[in-house]
Amino acid sequence: PNKPATESSGDVPDKPAKAVTLNILDVAGNLQLTQGMIDDFVKQHSDVISKVTYSKGPAPELAGKIKAQQNANRVDIDLVLTGTDGLAAGREQGLWTDLLTKYSDRLPGMKDYLPPAQKMQELGGKEGVTVTYYPSGPLLEYMPSKVPTPPKTADDLLAYAKANKGKVMYARPANSGPGRTFLMGLPYILGDKDPKDPVNGWDKTWAYLKELNQYVDFYPSGTADTMKSLANGSANIIASTTGWDINPRVLGTVPKEAAITPIQGFHWVTDAHYAVVPKGVSTDKQAAILQLLQFMLTPEQQAKAYDKGYFYPGPAIKGVELAQAPQESKDAITEFGRPEYDKLIADNPTEVPLDAKALVAAFDKWDREVGGSKVKSQ
Amino acid sequence: MSGFDQLRLDGVTRRFGAADALVGLDLTIERGEFIALLGPSGCGKSTALNCLAGLLPLTAGAIWQDDQRIDTLPPEKRGFGMVFQNYALFPHLTVRDNIAFGLRMRHLPKDDVRRRTTEAIEMVQLIEHASKLPGQLSGGQQQRVAIARATVLEPTLVLMDEPLSNLDAKLRLEMRTEIRRLHQSLGLTTVYVTHDQEEALSMADRLVVMRQGKVQQIGTPEEVHTKPSTWHVADFMGYRNLLPLKASQMNGDQVTVDLGGTAIRGSAQGAVAPGDDVIAAVRPEDVKLSDQGVKGLVEVVEYQGRERAVEVVLDGGGQDDPVRLHVRTEQRVEAGEQVALTVTPGRLLVYPS
Amino acid sequence: MSGFDQLRLDGVTRRFGAADALVGLDLTIERGEFIALLGPSGCGKSTALNCLAGLLPLTAGAIWQDDQRIDTLPPEKRGFGMVFQNYALFPHLTVRDNIAFGLRMRHLPKDDVRRRTTEAIEMVQLIEHASKLPGQLSGGQQQRVAIARATVLEPTLVLMDEPLSNLDAKLRLEMRTEIRRLHQSLGLTTVYVTHDQEEALSMADRLVVMRQGKVQQIGTPEEVHTKPSTWHVADFMGYRNLLPLKASQMNGDQVTVDLGGTAIRGSAQGAVAPGDDVIAAVRPEDVKLSDQGVKGLVEVVEYQGRERAVEVVLDGGGQDDPVRLHVRTEQRVEAGEQVALTVTPGRLLVYPS
Amino acid sequence: MRQIRATPLGWVIWAVVVFFFVNLAGVVLSVLVSSFGTKWFDTWFPSGFTTQWYGDAWREFTLFHVIVVTLLVSALVVVLSVLVGAPAAYVLARKNFPGKRLVYLTFLLPILMPPITYGIPLATVLYKFGFAGHLSGVVLANLVPSVPFVILTMTPFIEQVDPRIEDAARMLGAGTRAVFLKILAPLLVPGLLASAILVLVRTVGMFELTFLTAGPDSQTLVVALYYSMSAAGIRAQQSVDAMAVIYTGMMLVLLVVALRFVNPTQLVARVKEEPSE
Amino acid sequence: MSATWQHRLAERGVDRRLWLLLPATIFVLLLFVYPFLYGLSLSFQPTDGGGVLANYSKFFSDAYQRDTIATTLKIALPAALLNVLAAVPIAFRLRGRFRGKRLLTTILVVPITLGTVLTAQGLLNYLGPTGWLNRLLLSLHIVDDPIRLTNNYWGVFFSLVITGFPFAFLLVLSYLSGIDPTLERAAATLGASRAQRFRRITLPLLAPGLATTFLLTFVLAFSVFPSAVLVGNPAGSTRVISLAAYQAAYEQYDYSYASAIAMVMGAVELVVVAIVLVWRSRLYTGSTGGKG
Ligand SMILES: Nc1ncnc2c1ncn2[C@@H]1O[C@H](COP(=O)(O)OP(=O)(O)OP(=O)(O)O)[C@@H](O)[C@H]1O
Ligand SMILES: Nc1ncnc2c1ncn2[C@@H]1O[C@H](COP(=O)(O)OP(=O)(O)OP(=O)(O)O)[C@@H](O)[C@H]1O
Ligand SMILES: [Mg+2]
Ligand SMILES: [Mg+2]
């Protein structure tokens, strides 16, 4: 059933000897943004890629799967679409092919990255190619009917939480994008010593979170639960991001009336999706993938990343306007998007997220000292 | 539950699907009686016993204990003891615990339980097997456990379903005596199912002979043995010779029938008229080899210890339907010998066919 | 597997834990023989049969079929048939399917299977029950299914473990004849376990009498019946009167013993010298009520059909250890009567005790 | 036919059962309703109904194919694990032999050990021999916990069968295979069914080993379900509900089919059943 | 092999039938034992260096991790016990024949199909602060504030009961079907009341099956993972040991440590299992008369 591993370490030709089929594994939900691009490429360049099979899976087990394949010398996943966590996990285990050292010139689109996307690409190192980008958060989302005067500052939030026990909610950071964005964004808001060093540099953040913890009932295990709580009224204010603000309202899981508010002095903690190639993929396939990635980094294709606000805005390169996006996309964002985002994105600084090690340390500390303290206090 | 004076079965009927296993059983059991249910395999003996014990709901009829109707009581409320035909020993309990089970259920003091259990184990001669599980016992040993388990309780009514069938003759005799002794000394009332006439005759005060779910005859052992009410009962009670003959002459209840050319007297059992087709019944042990009488040829001889079971084909019987007589004798005869037979006077019973 | 000429058991032994269930059984079975294993409950009969069948591994010894050692073959390779003491019917199969099972295992043509199965069902008189499940049958019916299931295969050796114990007397007689007939007409070799001496005597060519796992005597029915080798065998073979006496006089193998003050002649079985403690054995039917002889008091009378079983306490026996004689008689006697007894000459056996 | 007898304790038990099921119905219905709902905020029922979530899930995960694969995998796993496990259970139930404890422990471990410990090396082995990435690999990997599972559940059932029944079959010329097929199998129907259903449930729900060994064509429903539930990114609550309903629906169909074939309470001892009243 | 030897071995249980063990043994050896040993050795090779036992001492010296054992046992033992104990009387009542039995059994078994995800979603929907149950209680004024039944211990417990009960029920019902009802009837004639019959006859004969059932439900409950995350409070009161292993493996990517935690998990289970098995081996485990 498996194709034997063909040559994977030699030079990558410009074009595969004959059209290849690609197995793409998406562990970040990225296909929602990019499947259209890939399908278009296959349609237009069937001499390069004859067929693509998609599979999807949760991120954490990804590394194990690739590792098993590589140990057995039979890699049958050719391209992985992942977030920063999967990318880092794989890198730590040495799973990814170094594509960019030799072949970055085949990806001219990478020169047009938006500046923050460029910074995200630096996180991607020589293995990951940024395909989509968004500024993320932290933002607070609330129901105007329940919270007439939303908190403007971190202290406001604390005061509100104290006054409305259990009504402020964020998900366990390890399981939730908005949760971790909130965590990583706090040091900037509170002016901590070293926002990149969660263990030694986040004194104010930890103190703040512990205090907030007193007014929180529990931390759901996913963002979806916080959204649901917001929608059904059991939470009034939750942590959110641009994408998590727009898309759930498009989908109808959160009422359209929900509003967002930034916290004074916040920095965007950005996020991106990457394409990576596991070691052991044949050079022919690598060639095809390089062509595919270059195709995906063109503005016409990047415009598809607007989607329905899921990764708002989405495109990683400069000069991609909403107008270029498919009609569906435009309609959704016209109805549910927020004009204020343009200004917020323009006016607030952007920061790359913590690197994998620091992030794991932050999660661990949060689990033990914030989330875990619940065990003792009960 | 203390004793009772009378137990009345009133039209007790049990059907399995469309088949009648037991039909309209009427029987009154007096306190202290020993009653044997007797009949061929499948005639409904176990069914009757199970109905009495409360293990099978009745299809119709009622059971009265003195003035109380008990056929709706669950088995444990009736306080009867039962020995099951397939033993139904508790596979997870040792012999001792099997036997002690009922006593423990009655919450007797520990010492009492131990003493009475030990006595019962001794009675059935299983001392060295007391701590074995039923699966480690021989068939006969299992049966003895079942007997001990039921009788150790000294219940007011004991029901026994062929309790001795797997025992050897010697032990069977001993157990018979033991059961009778228990019955008498404890003042039990016993209903005893058996297929062994001798057992029934020797143990019971009254016999109930059944056939195909119906009672054929109820009577003392002597009545049933000497005056079976139908030829079926006779058949079952060891009248092995059942001869389809013609009645020739009547004299009171004396009938004359023709057997192999010889006229023989018998006593009529039921309405018989001269010229009728009748069935004449006689036991092998009531037919004697002698110098004169009905002539015949010895066909089969079977050694049975002191006696021999001999099968004689009568002369003059039809070619394709020869008349055979079973004879028991202490004489030495050989197959092929020519013999003459006489029937002990008064021992030939004549039934309408 | 086609037939064999001889089956040899050579020191066959089986132990359960520390207990010997069967010790050094030596027995040669000739083709076509009908052998009965006889002995009290728990003596190892079933164990012997199971060893022969291959269902129990031997602890020691060997089994030879002609020149082939077969005690290591699994049961299904030996090609023997077996009737189990507890029937072991397949609870999920109807009577018909139970009986057809073995034939199906031999992949016989469908028509053959049907025909032979039907014949077997007829033989055991279960036609109207053919489509019942075993759980819906009476005990006797189940046993008949077990018999039919084993014999329908016409195996070279048939092993039967008390196959008739749950049947009534009439059916038992019929089945006996049927089994003998099958044995002869199919040229089977049969090993038959029973606890019923009469059955053993009437059916078998040779008897093996066992006690506590050991063979006591092997011989023809007549030998075993008239000359039991030990008093244990005598006991088991119906010599219900076993009297501990003293030998007074010897004359060849004629011994004189003193019974209740009367000198009686018996034949010595084994080394007996004057003055020895001996055990005198005599059957109840060989003791006659008469006008003179040993005197005694009738204690118990049991009705047993034509005959009565009478227990007589001899005069002059010790107060605490009275000597009792069991007698069978056709005479009417009552408990409390004074009687005199004689022993049929030549029927008293005297064993060293 | 017997009515359920109403002792006081009986009433209590049935009351508890009914209470349990009323709440369970609430649990299930709330998901079902939600999976068909458009928007459902702080109200008793959603504001509208739609089948959109099912359509989306169906297309996004090519569920038809996934379901076919799932059925195939679970059927194979059930059949194979019974074939391999039942004979072993037989030996463990019937025989005492030297080293039995060790063997027993070896069979216990795969049930006790979480797949984290052996999942990745197992997948490596399966990739090495070319099974993984394909249906056969998924089946083999799932057999690892299933075979011991069958062994463990079947052992008590086999213990319950009187060995003399088997002896009788052997005496009638039945070899081991025939004894298994004609005697044990029918007698063990309740046990086989129970363990088959449980293996089925576990297999259909076994995410980890399946994910590690599945290729693009051999994903099962549970992988899709876990993805929809825990993948990064945004997914409507209702679409997870819809996936869960599809998952349950499939299991339900399998269960009902299984129960149609064999009644779990079909007693072999049925003929000796409590007398009907 | 000499026949004597063959007898010796046969008496000890070594005979041809042992071959039946072969397929399963080979299978487990090939596909489990090797990978498992690999995992075991991995647990002795800590990523961060240190001695062979570094992972284990790390686990046991860290209260945050060590406590997961107690947390897990606190959830798994009661849930497994409840499932088995509840299954017994219900299954017991479902023996025999009566109208609607098949339907009733099917209904009782159906929750087995729900799966963790649907159960979790359902519990969150139904028992959540604005779920139907709380709505009902609030509108009937039985409570003033919504009761919290999810995202804590109870959520996980309920989910284990919902998924575990039918499982236990199915097994118990089947084991029960193997017991010959005649035995109970025999006990009845010996004067045993319903309760006594159950206690003295049915229960002991059922006990080996119950032990197995308990083991299986316990093992399932002990490795509870998705529901601990979804309906529990994974950061706090329901931080079960499998979650600790999961975090080590998939959040911190320390497979070695994860293996060690999983080994500890297996060992704890093994202790419970061993206790139950030792107990079981003292029970009567033979024919229960029902099938022959
Ligand atoms: N559960 C049942 N279903 C159908 N028929 C049954 C059932 N139980 C018994 N029978 C039938 O009822 C009849 C009477 O059975 P019963 O057990 O009372 O006979 P029995 O007189 O005890 O015979 P035996 O001496 O052989 O034990 C038999 O023909 C039997 O086949
Ligand atoms: N599995 C076992 N474990 C221990 N002892 C056993 C086992 N099976 C049989 N025995 C013992 O071995 C002895 C012989 O048993 P066996 O079944 O051969 O007797 P039997 O002659 O057939 O008796 P019966 O006529 O009562 O059936 C008995 O004392 C019995 O208790
Ligand atoms: Mg009967
Ligand atoms: Mg026996």
From TrEMBL, chains B, C:
Keyword ATP-binding part of the UniProt annotation: yes
| Molecular functions per Gene Ontology | ABC-type transporter activity; ATP binding; ATP hydrolysis activity
Pfam families named in the record: ABC_tran (PF00005), TOBE_2 (PF08402)
This protein's source sits in the domain of life called Bacteria
InterPro entries associated with the record: AAA+_ATPase, ABC_transporter-like_ATP-bd, ABC_transporter-like_CS, ABC_transpr_MalK/UgpC-like, Mo/tungstate-bd_C_term_dom, NA-bd_OB-fold, P-loop_NTPase, Transp-assoc_OB_typ2
User: Would the keyword Translocase be found if you checked this record's keyword annotation?
Assistant: yes
Which terms in the GO cellular component ontology are assigned? ATP-binding cassette (ABC) transporter complex, substrate-binding subunit-containing
Q: Which residues form the ABC transporter domain?
A: 7-237
Keyword annotations: ATP-binding, Cell membrane, Membrane, Nucleotide-binding, Translocase, Transport
Leader sequence residues: none
The protein's name in its UniProt record: ABC transporter ATP-binding protein
Species: Kribbella soli
TrEMBL record, chain D:
Query: Residue ranges of the ABC transmembrane type-1 domain?
Result: 67-258
Q: Which SUPFAM superfamilies match?
A: MetI-like (SSF161098)
Q: Where is the protein situated, by its record's location annotation?
A: Cell inner membrane; Cell membrane
Q: How does it sit in the membrane?
A: Multi-pass membrane protein
Q: Which GO terms describe its cellular component?
A: plasma membrane
Q: Where is this protein primarily located?
A: membrane
Give an example GO biological process. Answer: transmembrane transport
Keywords from the UniProt entry:
Cell inner membrane, Cell membrane, Membrane, Transmembrane, Transmembrane helix, Transport
* Domain of life where this protein originates: Bacteria
Listed transmembrane segments: 12-36, 63-90, 102-127, 139-158, 179-201, 244-262
Family listed:
Belongs to the binding-protein-dependent transport system permease family.
UniProt protein name: ABC transporter permease subunit
This chain's source organism reads Kribbella soli
UniProtKB/TrEMBL annotation, chain E:
Question: Which CDD domains does the UniProt record give?
Answer: TM_PBP2
Q: Which organism is it from?
A: Kribbella soli
Transport in keyword set: yes
Q: Where are the transmembrane segments?
A: 18-37, 75-92, 104-127, 153-176, 203-225, 257-279
List the SUPFAM superfamilies hit by this protein, alphabetically: MetI-like
Q: Keyword check for Transmembrane, yes or no.
A: yes
Name a biological process GO annotation: transmembrane transport
Membrane topology summary: Multi-pass membrane protein
The subcellular location is: Cell membrane
Identify the GO cellular component terms for this protein. Answer: plasma membrane
Q: What InterPro entries does the database record attribute to this sequence? A: MetI-like (IPR000515), MetI-like_sf (IPR035906)
Pinpoint the ABC transmembrane type-1 domain residues. Answer: 69-276
The name under which this protein is listed is: Sugar ABC transporter permease
Homology family: Belongs to the binding-protein-dependent transport system permease family. CysTW subfamily.
Task: Give the keywords, sorted.
Answer: Cell membrane, Membrane, Transmembrane, Transmembrane helix, Transport
PROSITE patterns xrefs? ABC_TM1
